[in-house]
Amino acid sequence: MKAVCWFGKGDVRVENVPEPKIINPHDAIIKVSLTAICGSDLHLYDGYMPTMEKGDILGHEFMGEIVEVGREVRNLKKGDRVVVPFPISCGRCYFCQKDMWSLCDNTNPNAWMAEGMYGFAGAAIFGYSHLLGGYAGGQAEYVRVPFADVGHVKIPADLPDEKVLFLSDILPTGYQAAEYCGIQPGDIVAVWGCGPVGQFAIKSAYLLGAEHVIAIDRIPERLRLAETFGGAETLNYEENEDVVEELKQRTGGRGPDACIDAVGLEAHGTGLGIIYDKVKQTLRLETDRPYALRQAIQACCKGGTVSIPGVYAQFADKFPIGSAFAKGLTFKMGQTHVHKYMRPLLERIQKGEIDPSAIISHRIRLDDAPIAYRKFREKEDCHIKIVLKP
Amino acid sequence: MAGEKRGEFKGINAQRTVTVNRPRADVYRFWRDFTNLTFMEHLESVSVKDDKQSHWVAKGPAGKTLEWDAVIVREVENERIEWESIQGSDMISGGLVLFKDAPGERGTEIQVVMVYDPPGGGVGAAFAKLFGENPSQKIREDLRRLKQLLETGEIPTISGQPQG
Ligand SMILES: [Zn+2]
Ligand SMILES: [Zn+2]
Description:
The structure holds 2 protein chains of 2 kinds.
Chain A (H helix, E strand, L loop, with lengths): L1 E7 L2 E6 L11 E10 L3 H5 L10 E2 L3 E9 L11 E4 L2 E2 L5 H4 L13 H8 L5 E2 L16 E4 L15 H4 L5 H10 L8 E5 L3 H12 L4 E6 L2 H9 L4 E4 L6 H8 L7 E4 L10 H11 L8 H9 L5 E4 L12 H6 L3 E4 L4 H13 L11 E4 L3 H10 L7 E4 L1
Parallel strand pairs in A: 10-11, 10-13, 11-12, 13-14, 14-15, 16-17
Antiparallel strand pairs in A: 1-2, 1-4, 3-5, 3-9, 3-17, 5-6, 7-8
Helix pairs in contact in A: 5-6, 5-12, 8-10
Chain B lengths: L1 H4 L6 E9 L3 H9 L10 E6 L4 E7 L5 E12 L3 E6 L6 E10 L6 E10 L3 H10 L4 H18 L12
Antiparallel strand pairs in B: 1-7, 2-3, 3-4, 4-5, 5-6, 6-7
The structure holds zinc ion (2 copies).
């Protein structure tokens, strides 16, 4: 079968590899009908994620048809159409049972590596380094899905792939980020980063009752989408030197009640802070570049919440803890508990409250993945979200 | 067992603890049947002779094995099991496992102490090597497999999957 494989920094190739087979009793094999490149796949492409190995199959956003199930999978059968959550969760451990699926105890075969880096291991993730399990990803014709009996919802035939694919990651990720804000009537929410997660965070903030959402980015196409798709007011940080002050001005001097950092470890930005971060990241003294996060902390209203769906890998410098402390901020963060949101968000899609396919900017064949990665990296032709058809 | 001798003990002594999301009686019952203990990486097999005695076979270097007989010296149902090897075995070994309710609805805490005193010579040295520089880490990995098995019925793996 064909699969998108990682070979090094800036080097992904479509290779011919053997088809996956059932290994464990809770496995299923899925024939992929649609998959996507995620912003966080760029962290791999750019070589920021350790423990990638040459030949690893990429991709954690995918859906398709079940072609085979292991003997312990009783709730799904051949022919069922499913979207696969990106964290692999066992459904039986304490964390899964408490709805904290991405913190699952039991799915990472390389848990010791994650423990070495983070002290604890959470759920494994498809196609996202050996530290996070080493499972082959879904940018391929077929995928083996462990614990397929847990959390997968059958997709009704009348919903096209493009409307439901993003249940695998970015829609729940944006939604969880907004839910973490604990939005109260009258709350103003600011969202850094108008990539796919930011777009869904904006939309979700409104669905959850936000008074108003301010979207911050520098790419005009993304800001435009934040207006048309999300209904947000926009702030281009390349045109506004002092984002923190600008946000205060737009919120009666209070600052946004909640701030969402949908950018993560590869934040772009302007000013001295970003140069400091870039130099340190190049020298590998600092693994993460928390420019957006610093602004979010500085801008946030007293007693407000900073919600962090953007991926951070390890250490961040110049973290304004004093400001966070003085303002009594609450921080909510972490990988998305996708399984928890699958069904409720599917219902919102069915009711027409949200059409996730609106953010798709490019539809290409799996074979063209290497070009897509490069263009996505360079943000040529305003690549917002690329879906791949095997 | 090890307790009295720990002061002079020079072999491998490792201990670790893990929480398993299963009732204490289930976890105890699983462990009490020593034939289930092959989730420990270095064990090839354990066979049970009678209510107290068992025969253990460990994977040694170059296809060799180390064998010993063990006897349960103390047990309290659903609380603790202590065993030690019988004189004349290839290796002096023993273990103590304690079972405790975890607070709230968190299942069972298992605390394990294992001791091995391999014989001298090449086989013993290679066996010691099997445990690596950090035998507690080995026990940690063994307990992780136990937890995975008891909670989900399978041990996660990526061996046998396709790769480019
Ligand atoms: Zn993703
Ligand atoms: Zn779990």
